[in-house]
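Table S2 (text version). Query chain:
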Amino acid sequence: MRSLATVFLWLVATLLLAAALPAAWAQQNLVDRSGYTALMQRAATNPDLQAAAAIELTTQVGRLSAGSDAAVVGGIAKLYTAGSSFPDQFAQASSYAHRWLFTDRVGGSTDSQGRWVIDLAPMLSDAAFAQTLRDYNIGVPTTIPIPLTDNAPAAVRPGALRVVGMWAPWVAWGLVALCAASVLLMLITAGNRGKAIVGLGVSAVLVGAAGWAAIEIGQRPLNAALDNTSGNVRTMADVIVATAENSMHQWLNVTMIVGGGLVIVGVLVSLLAGLARHHSGR
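Corresponding structure-token output:
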């Protein structure tokens, strides 16, 4: 009976870990605004994203003033996106899209079609563009919304994930707490603590490997969703997605490393327990 309870708790702990890991990652890196901003800052250090952003900024300046010199503006834009201030300002521009999706503070009136947008105004307001914009007598509007997709699904509308933003922290950390509780109960119930620790290590390795597989399987539908974007926005979206995937891979790798460590610890505990029983039996 005790062994059945241990096996049951092992299954529960494994399932809870499989749910808690992606939930905690999503809360930390996507739902939480500061975590999302940090992710965007890392993405903005990628040269491909910087090049695409420079082209998009040049295009927007051209729209603000048809008389601007694209070569001059393009050169300034490249220097700006390669500079140290760009990651922070790109993150600020991207946070507009985050507020658009996770709160009701950005209305659909920003875009006539209600599309998901980012705001390039903070970047064009940088000192790097100040003199050039003055030379062409260009004033930067309060917001310069750039659609992230031309054909957004009906579910992607202003404030569509507001409820998710409210409840995601509770769900994520609730799953983490339940997972930790099931692990403790399993260790308490187990007759052989060493084997129980080995089992937990195997769970972590399995969950990490399953996470890698899930990311690979999700590539096709994700690429289909990104097909709604094009040009410079598609390039930036590809880099952002790759950055997010790398972040998730790091979490999964740490999980598998910890799992491997637990397997080793469990084996050592079992060996030491066996030696202790052997000596006590003499």
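Notes on Table S2: Residues 151 and 228 are 6 Å apart (CA to CA). The two ends are 30 Å apart (CA to CA).
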